[in-house]
Amino acid sequence: MEFDWDAEQRTFRSTVRGFLEAYLPDDWESLAHGPGSASQSAFSKKFCGQLSRAGLLVPHWPKRWGGREADAWTSFILAEEMWAAGEPRGGQYMNVNWIGPTLMRFGSEEQQERYIPPMARGETIWCQGFSEPEAGSDLASLRTRADRDGDHYIINGQKIWTSYAGDADTCFLLARTSPGKTGLSIFLLPMDTPGITVRQIPSIIGEGDIHEVFFDDVRVPASAMLGAEGQAWEIARTSLSLERVGIPRFALASRMLGRAVTTLQQSGRFRGGAIDQAARARAACEAARLYSYQIVDQRRHGTPTGPEASAARYATVMAERLVGDFVVEQVPEALSGGDPMLLAHHQRAIVAGIASGAAEIQLNLIATELLRLPREPR
Amino acid sequence: MDFTLTADQSALASALDRLATPFETKPTDFHGFALFGARLEQELEDGQYFDIAQVPELGPLSAAMAVERLAWLPCTAEIALSMLVRPQLPGDWPRPLAVVENGRPGRFVATAGTVLLIDGERMALAKPAAGDVEAAESLLAYPMGRLRSGVAVHPLSDSETVNLRKWLRIALAAEASGLLQAAIASAVEHLSLRKQFGRPLGSFQALRHRMAECAVLAGGVRWLALKAAATAAEGDAALAALHAQESATRVVYDLHQMLGAMGMTLEHPLHLWTYRLKALLSELGGRSGQASAVARHCFANAA
Question: What is the spatial distance between Cα B281 and Cα A300, in angstroms, rounded to a whole number?
Answer without folding.
Answer: 37
